[in-house]
């Protein structure tokens, strides 16, 4: 091995005769007693190169690779992959305790050490990663997963293998979404329903506000109606069912892909808990195993605090509802024609921007709360800690991202009352109403704005901030101080390590959550792509474009802009698979609810089969939805307006006595008509049928596609048979002797 190969570098400020220097020397002395070689280089900072002794890697191989070995093969450690060397050294550094009972993490909090990182090195594998992965010119080429594994470890390699597989299968979902929108734009754009709205120039609608608002003509919303029926049609139902099946097939095929990869990497028998115990014993032979513990008291406290946090997030969604209600009232009464004419749409779009801002803000709050709850839980191992944190942050982020969408999808326009008896906020502002052609366009706009903002602003910032930070760190180079002492060996005037260490130090910091953040970002995107996809069929296309860019943007950040991640071993994507399966189930429920409740699909079908001219007579040449719009609008007598309502009684020179509004109510006492209950029963029946069929199809798909390919199963079986045969032959030899 090259004597100038170093496993880790520690960095600290220049501190002379201070408490920090004493603490630093105590930690370095502990490492020296464990046989570590330490090299000190003085520049703008103090750099300490750390190289582990050969004995550590022999122990690692004995404990985990070859437990029957009886002799010390000191050359064997040379065959240990660099990723394993870094992982072992990192574990020992993190768990070395000084005489003051302080670990490296404690010392870094007290600024005794500023940074600790493994080194990026100029070698063949980094050249391959730079040429075939970390550049924009290879945007549509296959990722070098083996090289990623060889440099960043199995955990990072599995993440990119999963992301690549997800992106590949998104292409099919994106094509289906485009086909749905295309069908809506061509086949359904000239639908009878939107045509009736565009021709309804004599249908007078009730005012949108209480003070000095005039009546309006239904045909004014012709464009809005056409957009609505472009996404709210029969093709949407088929697409929603397709996406439910797609989500299942994606996960089942990923399980097969993962099984093939893990077998190839020989990780089937690897046990994370066993490895952590082995590393603890290598670090301290007297280590006492930390037993599993469970506290019902702490679990209750965590549950209560988590529920309180969820209530806060739901409260924020309510605040957005209040904003929209107030905004609609103010925009409608505005003197600016653009605002007053498109009050609903502008309120929806500005509400979506506010929702995006709350997502950005609350994500940071959610992070801190989840970390605090995780500390209360006191998980035993690092994997348990990560799983516990993952569950909490995913739940909080779900409510942060989707609470407002849930309101728009399932409550908007359904709890607002009716003219003469509106539900009001603080007894003043009316809740929003749905457009006469349905509420699904509001959901479409909200999702489009949030996804576009998340995938443009967030991605630009995600790339620009590390790039700018790296450039600033490179420029910020004060004059180096003179050397003032070495540890281990003399420093030459132009030490060959100095440039490499400085170059790595100038890169952006990484932490244990760097990869976690990438997972979380894509999982939230997966939620947007599946849960309400019936209302926004273009979501898979946006996700596909984002992921193609994301893969190579992450690659550039990892290889060129950030310090080297500590490689970690893994044989799957962990608890994220369960999270994805839960989202897949929610997607079936969510899309079923969108079609049953948000969409106008069910009311139109009920009208066609029970109330249309086709139901009463045999009209073969007539579109059965003829007359639907007039049927879906109730009549309100303006004499029944509330006392404080001030409307302009004349419209286009005509004195108005009654107006129309979207609902199924009687004209005399405003109670629900029998048609309302027919539609309600049909919605419920469709929801039950859709979800049962979709879940059955999911179960059949999961059964039909084995998690592990037969080829992999046979290789494992052959391996077991071979081992048993070897043992049997050894036993027979011993018996003969």
Structure description:
The chain is of the alpha+beta class and 737 residues long. The chain folds into 4 domains: 8-119, no CATH class; 138-286 and 293-475 and 511-603, no CATH class; 604-704, no CATH class; 712-736. Helices cover 61% and strands 7% of the residues. The strands form 7 sheets. A 4-stranded antiparallel beta sheet has the order 2-3-1-4, with helices on both faces. A two-stranded antiparallel ribbon has the order 5-7. Strands 6-13 form a two-stranded parallel ribbon. The protein starts with 7 loop residues before the first strand and ends with a helix. The chain crosses the membrane at residues 156-185, 235-254, 296-326, 346-367, 388-412, 523-552, 573-597, 680-705. Residues 148-716 form the Anoctamin transmembrane domain. One of its GO terms (cellular component) is plasma membrane. It is a multi-pass membrane protein.
